[in-house]
Amino acid sequence: MVAKADITENPADRMKLIGAAALVIGGMVLFYSFGQFSFLYRVLALLAIFAVAIFIYLQTAHGVRTVGFFRDSRTEVRKVVWPTRAETTQTTVMVMIIVFLVGVFLWLLDWMLSGAFRFITGLGS
User: Fold this and answer.
1) What is the pLDDT along the chain (125 residues), one digit of tens a residue?
2) Does 51 reside within a domain?
3) Scanning 18, 27, 32, 90, which has its CA 20 to 30 A from the CA of 3?
């Protein structure tokens, strides 16, 4: 079991996070405020603002933990034993057959219940 690392949050990190959030919100507001400019220019400006906000976020303790999480995730994905192409194909075919059979079963059940309902209520005679 891995012990949880205690990372103390300092006021500078809090200000960086607030600044990054303000950049993201400000970028979205500016994107919609400058509708007279080309869509391409607005998207490029928005992406640049997001890049700066991400850079600021990565300088905080939260950002360092996020990067560590993604590194650990990549390591775990490499450990997974992935199915072969044949296993994947067989599983996919079986799922498709089961879905088809369940669909036919539900169609027949609906047909029988609606027939019984019409017979009991006398509707549709």
Assistant:
1) 555 655 667 889 999 999 999 999 999 999 999 989 999 999 999 999 999 999 999 999 999 999 999 999 999 999 999 999 999 999 999 999 999 999 999 999 999 999 999 999 988 66
2) yes
3) 18
Residue 49 sits in the same domain as residue 14: yes
Longest CA–CA separation in the chain, Å? 78
Cα distance between residue 44 and residue 51, in whole Å? 10
Range of the domain at 120: 83-125
Q: Output the six-digit token pair for 24.
A: 């993201």
Q: Is there a domain that residue 31 lies in? A: yes
18 domain-assigned = yes
